[in-house]
Amino acid sequence: MATGAARLIFLDGTQIPVDGHALNFAAGNLYVVNIGNVGDGSAAAVAQAANKAYVVADTHGVAITALRGGMGGITEGEHLTFMGRDDSGNAEYWFFGSVKGAVGAFVPATSLFGSADVNGNHQVDPGEITHLPDILGVIPAAGLVLGDLGG
């Protein structure tokens, strides 16, 4: 899902879990975390793999007060994309973040104010991830680069 991010950053959580507390969601970064095998590719299987590969930060955005006549706004809360490989060998992509206000595959940055961890249990749950289109026959670790995603 596009958010108008300035930077696409790939992280590997297959050996050591990626700690969401160490990520800066408010700096125009869009993180993609490789979570490895996602079994049958169902939301439940992806959530299980994501919880092994990623530590939920449970961060909300922060309202920015207008100072000296400047514009206020918000910073973005926790949001990222999980990528993995299903049992059929296809690349699976799942978005973890608020999708409020999404139109098609575009999520406006203003919708990312809330935490991805909707129920606050510090876990990725099947109902908190949104399936993105599969890339058939592509192995995530085989060299998918920003240019392949239109960047």
Structural write-up:
This protein has 151 residues and is mostly beta strands. It has one domain. The protein is built from 1 helix and 9 strands. The chain has one helix spanning 43-53; strands at residues 7-12, 18-19, 29-37, 54-55, 63-64, 73-74, 80-85, 91-96, 129-135. The strands form 3 sheets. It has a 5-stranded mixed β-sheet. It has a two-stranded parallel ribbon with strand order 2-4. It is globular and about 35 Å long.
Give me some keywords for this one.
151 residues; mainly beta; 1 helix; 9 strands; 7% helix; globular; disordered C terminus
Shape: globular
What is Rg?
15 Å
DSSP summary: helix tally: 1
Straight-line N-to-C gap: 13 Å
Biggest β-sheet strands, sense, barrel: 5 strands, mixed
Low-confidence stretches: 63-72, 146-151
Q: Give the overall average pLDDT.
A: 77
Strands side by side in the biggest sheet = 1-3-7-8-9
Number of domains: 1
> What is the H-and-E element order?
EEEHEEEEEE
Task: Report the sheet-strand fraction.
Answer: 25-35%
How much helix is in the residues? Answer: under 10%
Structure classification: mainly beta
Q: Please report the total strand number as a whole number.
A: 9
What are the SSEs and their pairings?
Layout: E1 7-12, E2 18-19, E3 29-37, H1 43-53, E4 54-55, E5 63-64, E6 73-74, E7 80-85, E8 91-96, E9 129-135
Parallel strand pairs: 1-3, 2-4, 3-7
Antiparallel strand pairs: 5-6, 7-8, 8-9
Give a brief rundown of this model:
The protein is mainly β and 151 residues long. It has one helix spanning 43-53, and strands spanning 7-12, 18-19, 29-37, 54-55, 63-64, 73-74, 80-85, 91-96, 129-135.
